[in-house]
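[job 0412] stage=complex_fold ligand=NPW status=START
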Amino acid sequence: MNDAQLLTLTPEIKDQLRKSSQDHKFTHGHALILCGPTGHTGAARLAARGALRVGAGLVSVATPHEALAENAAHLTAIMLTEVDTPEALTATLMDARITALCVGPAFGIARAGAFLPAVLAANRPTVIDADALTTLASLGFDAVHPACVLTPHAGEFKRLFPDIAANIDAAAITGAPHSKIDATRAAAKRAGCTVLLKGAETVIASADGRAVTHGAVGGRAAPWLATAGAGDVLAGMIAGLLARGFTPQDAAQTGAYLHVEAARVVGAGLIAEDLPDAVPHVFRALGL
Ligand SMILES: NC(=O)C1=CN([C@@H]2O[C@H](COP(=O)(O)OP(=O)(O)OC[C@H]3O[C@@H](n4cnc5c(N)ncnc54)[C@H](OP(=O)(O)O)[C@@H]3O)[C@@H](O)[C@H]2O)[C@@H](O)CC1
Ligand SMILES: Nc1ncnc2c1ncn2[C@@H]1O[C@H](COP(=O)(O)OP(=O)(O)O)[C@@H](O)[C@H]1O
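[job 0412] stage=complex_fold status=DONE, emitting structure tokens
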């Protein structure tokens, strides 16, 4: 079943991206980005900058004590909060003004195993990416809730949904009708939440069967996105949009669209750090 819509930004989504002069920062939510240990903190900062640039009112990096100084040396507008244990995370999340989470970028697989139950128990809109996806592959989907967005690349998708991924490979050989869209839909249904399968063709599907496909090809090609950390920025952008109150499907779709547009603004020579800083140019071009 390949009746997925092609992704465009609707006038309603553009309106939702705007900020009004009546707003204050808490109107646009607070995204909390979980950070890994010393020496592995860059990915969380990339995500945090993505979240702030798409308009989250506040963004904090939740860092282990050992990485406080490392993070502080790099961050200014983005805030820091010390979180060493899952219990400390649960205590931090007593603040209901934290409206979205992002877990996974360079977080560490063992660390993700320890923290994921507390993350999911918070029942907050949450992007689950990178190492947290690898952990989810062994943890299973029981605790995953509908406000989650899973953002696997093809390798992570294979780890999470090996049987569904095998169907795509089989289709390539036998010509059976099982596309990337079918696969993402099946994955979203199984996980019970929104799934965004990354790539030059990105597919976003929800558990209710909605699916949208976004081709960064032809006139919208963005091959320089094939660079380390580009996915971490996307995870942060989606978390920022979730923090602002976008639904999981809309946050994933809008994040994917803005991510490719930001890459197209920068063009050849793009590195992941450039993506968040290109977002204001994209917003200007969109007339926001
Ligand atoms: N600046 C930073 O701090 C950065 C930190 N990072 C952090 O590093 C951690 C590891 O994340 P990761 O994604 O690099 O590695 P991993 O989870 O082992 O999977 C890779 C394997 O999967 C496969 N594969 C298949 N299709 C694929 C595809 N489309 N895209 C990619 N891979 C694909 C492929 O296997 P192959 O197909 O070659 O057999 C490949 O060997 C994670 O925490 C992440 O956040 C990075 O984000 C970089 C910037
Ligand atoms: N050739 C390409 N054309 C368009 N987008 C791409 C291409 N290669 C990668 N991307 C995008 O770049 C991002 C890479 O994410 P990921 O593989 O998770 O990298 P990382 O883990 O290094 O951040 C994804 O959003 C993916 O859709």
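The radius of gyration is 18 Å.
[job 0412] exit 0
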